[in-house]
Every structure is written in structure tokens, then in C-alpha cells.
Amino acid sequence: LGLWQGLLKWSLQYSDGTTNRPEGEMSEERRKFLEKAMEGLGRTEVDAIKGNMAVVLENPRVYFEDGLGGTDLESRLDALENVLDVVDNLDNAKSLVPLGFFSPIIGLLRCNYAEVKKLAARIIAVCSQHNPPCQQHALEGGALSVLMPMLHDRDVRTQALSAVTCLLGGHSDGLALFANLGGGRVLAALLDGELRGDEEDPRFQLRLLHTLAALAVDARTAERLNEAGVGSSLLDYLTNSSRFEGGNGWHRREKGLRALALLSRAPALGAQPARTLEVVSATRSDYQALPPDDQAAHREVVQYLDDLVEAVSSPVPQAAPLAIAMASPIGAGGNA
Predict the structure, then answer these.
(1) Are 256 and 298 in contact (CB under 8 A)?
(2) CA angle 89, 83, 3 (to 5 degrees)
(3) What residues of the chain score a pLDDT lower than 70?
(4) Closest Cα partner for 332 from 125, 91, 123?
(5) How far apart are CA 78 and CA 73, in angstroms?
(6) Residue 141: phi, psi to the nearest 5?
(7) Nearest alpha carbon to residue 158 among 116, 216, 107, 208
(8) Percentage of the chain with pLDDT > 90?
(9) How many CB atoms lie within 10 A of CB 45?
(10) 282-307 as b/e: b if 16+ CB within 10 A
């Protein structure tokens, strides 16, 4: 504890101006102190993972039985939250695999408790994002096949979808497996469900549209999504302008247009130019009616509309326009 207090005091003094920064090289004594502190930091974070996972994995059978609750459940949820905080660091995320904790986290996706499943999915999302070793381990551990059914559960689907998105980012084998598991049909059904549902979920819609746009960056995946009916469902979704009034409406509209522009490169969607141009016309009219500040906040909408017009006017599917391909890469887009 004294070491940490010393490090905290030293860092505060040199950041709040109360101590003059010495010119020249750091003294050997101070250098050794900092090296020891930073070495201890790494050990402490790994120890934190081990200690919290010990709480999580105590008598794991309780996760698959009824009756887990009270302080026992709360302590396990707190421990999972602590792990989630630590693995936000890429090196710590990678350490879950050699420590033997990644597979048990995947196993928790099958448990009886929604709050546990949510946190397990969030940990998988954070660990897998831009992290090929964790992606590979999760795919080999069957995470995708467990996450797919969770997409139909309203209690956990947002976290499951975030995990799927991060798991597949830039991973060609994962994208192929997703297609073979009927992933396109699942996403189309989710979008159709939001169209038919009595109570729409704007937050989930934004997550879903982010996933569609992220997956459609890959041309082969975009073609598979169109074959599964995603492009047609997305056109249905974007046709109703009243859906985007208030809340995060223009964020959803912008994300949906990006996904549609990417899907328009692939076959199948090109058979519906009239519907596409109807969406373009209505969106352009609504966009022009926005105040200047709002137009500036969603200026990429104009590029997506132009890309859609170009796509439906071209007899041959085009490669992704640079503005689309370079937009936000596949990722969590919010894991909460």
C-alpha cells in the first residue's frame, strides 16, 4: 500500500504544479521506484483478474440451477464487473486465455441468469474487439453458436449483438461461420421484428444498424446479407420517416443509410431501385429541413444518399466508396 501511496503522491505533485519538474535525467533512485511501481501495477491487475474470477467460478453449478440470488448473486456480478473493467486494457484481455478464464466466461452465456449473461457477453465483446487471438479462441470455444440464440431474447440481445459484432470484426472465418449459422436471416428477422413490434426499441435498433453496417463492409458478407433479405428489410425500415422523429432518430437513420449504401454494392438489392430512390428522396427532403447545426452533425448522410443514387444507377455492383469503407470500423459501438 505504501508503494501505491508514494506513486500517487509523486504523480499528483508532478501534474498539479506543486513540484518543480527537475531538468536533466531522472535519478537512479527515482527510476527504480517507478519501475517497481509499474511492475507491481501489472501484477496487481492480473491478481485482480484471478481474485475476481475465483469469486465468479466458485461452485459454478449454481448458475444453471434456480435459487441463486441475494448477496451471493450480487458478489458474483460485482466480480464480473471488476473483470470487465480490467480487461478493457488489451494486454489484460489477452491474459484471460492463458489464465484459463476465457472458456468459463463463454460457458456463462448458457446460464439461467440474464444479468450474468449480459456481463459475460460484454466481457467477450471487449476482449474480442481488435484482438485476433481472443476472437480466434472465442470462435473455437463455440461462443458464436451460443450468442446467436441470445439475439432472440429481449433481456440480453443488445449485449449479445455487441459481442457478435466484435467477435466477427475482420475475421473471415468468423464471418463465414456466421453466414453458415444463418446469421443473415437472424438479423433480417430482428429488423422485421422492430417493424412489426408494438414497442420499438430505438437503442437496440441503433446497435443492430451498427452491426449491419459493420458486417456489410466485407463485400462477400454484404452479398450474403442481401440473399437473406436484410437489404429488403432495411428498405422497409428506412421508408417510414416518422420512425426517426425525436430521440436518436437521425443517428439511427444515418447508420441505416450507411448499411444500405454498403449493401447496395452487392447483388439482390439492385433489383429494387425504385424503393431505394424513394428512401433517398424522402431522406434528402427531411435532411434539408433540419437546422444548419443538425445538418452539420449528420453531414455524412449526404454522402450515403449520393452513394445510393450511384449504386442503383450502375448496372454493375461497385466497390465500396472510400467514404463508406473508411468509416467507423467494426466494433462494439457501445457495450452497455
Answers:
(1) no
(2) 70
(3) 1-43, 197-199, 268-271, 315-336
(4) 125
(5) 9
(6) -85, 5
(7) 208
(8) 62
(9) 17
(10) ebeebbeeeeeeeeeebeebebbbeb
> Where are the extended beta strands (E) located within the chain?
none
Amino acid, single-letter form, for residue 124: I
Q: Which residue has the cell 469469486?
A: 55
Residue indicated by cell numbers 445510393:
308
Q: In this structure, how many other beta carbons lie within 10 angstroms of the beta carbon of residue 184?
A: 23
What SS3 state is found at 327? coil
* Backbone phi, psi, residue 188, to 5°: -65, -40
As given in the structure block, the three cell numbers for residue 138 are 472465442
Q: Which of 146, 149, 150 is nearest to 159 (CA)?
A: 150
Question: 326: how many CB neighbours lie within 10 A of its CB?
Answer: 10
For residues 158 and 205, the answer to whether their CB atoms sit within 8 Å is no
Instruction: List Cα–Cα distances, 61 to 65, 66, 104, 150, in angstroms.
Output: 7, 10, 12, 20
In this structure, what DSSP letter does residue 318 have?
P
Would you say the C-alpha torsion 155, 196, 213, 140 has a positive or negative sign? positive
Q: How far apart are CA 217 and CA 66, in angstroms?
A: 43
Instruction: Write the burial class of residue 335 (CB in 10 Å: 0-12 exposed, 13-18 middle, 19+ buried).
Output: buried
Model pLDDT, residue 194: 84
8 Å CB contact between 170 and 147 = no
Instruction: Count Cβ atoms below 10 Å from residue 18 Cβ, excluding itself.
Output: 8
